[in-house]
Amino acid sequence: ERALHGRLVRLEEQNRQLLGQLAESQSQEDSTARKEREVMLRLKEVVDKQRDELRARAHEIVCKSRDTEALQEQLHRFMAMNEDLRHKVAVVQAQLKSALEKKSDLEAAMLRTQREMSRRSRTASEIQQPKPSSEGAPPPVEEPQHQDADAGRSPAHCCFSREELQQILQERNELKTNLFLVQEELAYYQRELLNEERVPSFFLDAMKSTIKRQRKKIRAKMLGTAEESASSDEDEGSWLPARGADCVDAQPPESKIRSFFGLWYQGSSK
């Protein structure tokens, strides 16, 4: 009995030790699981944060790439506008140089004309004066010489002053400038329409015929001649909407160039 009792006591003591070890191991496992859970939660938070940052960076990169493309397109447009402006400045400078040369030529021509007119007026006055030897009858050669002197004068010299010639020159330069601006605008719209793939072909043909008609009308106004009759191909663009008062189709004011050349041709026919 003593041996059994001692053995039972030892077994109970071992059982208590094992229970204590089991409780310690369970507590250690619980603490380890808790630590692992905390670590996983922290890792999840870090991963979510990094994923959000990556998404924000990707969106920022996409926005910057779009902005870069827009800036490149704007740069190309500005370069094209700069090239057009350079071309316009060069044309305006050439027109200014030509206008100055024309002005100097007109001034020289006016001086020569004035000198010629003064010389002819003096000659006519000398011819019209009666001679002392023939006071009773006028000389028979006086009237033909006077008529020849009047016929030698150009109607442009008799009917136009210096200010009117300057107005003619200014009107000519304005017409040349308007023609250049219209050509540049039409070329721009041509480029825009040709780059657009959705524009139908008949609209492009109508635009081309309209461009030809506008150029012919402006050229006729610049030269002061009658406008050429439009062909059947050009009449196809007549369905386009009419422009306002600024259009070249509107009734223009009285042109000094047209009146100048009209008098010139009348004097030549006489």
UniProtKB/TrEMBL annotation:
Residues 157-234 form the RH2 domain. Pfam families: RILP (PF11461). It comes from the Eukaryota. One of its GO terms (biological process) is cilium assembly. Keywords: Coiled coil. Gene3D superfamilies: 6.10.230.10. GO terms for molecular function: dynein light intermediate chain binding; protein dimerization activity; small GTPase binding. The keyword Coiled coil applies. PROSITE patterns: RH2 (PS51777). Residues 113-155, 224-245 are annotated as: Disordered. This is Rab-interacting lysosomal protein. It comes from Nipponia nippon (Crested ibis).
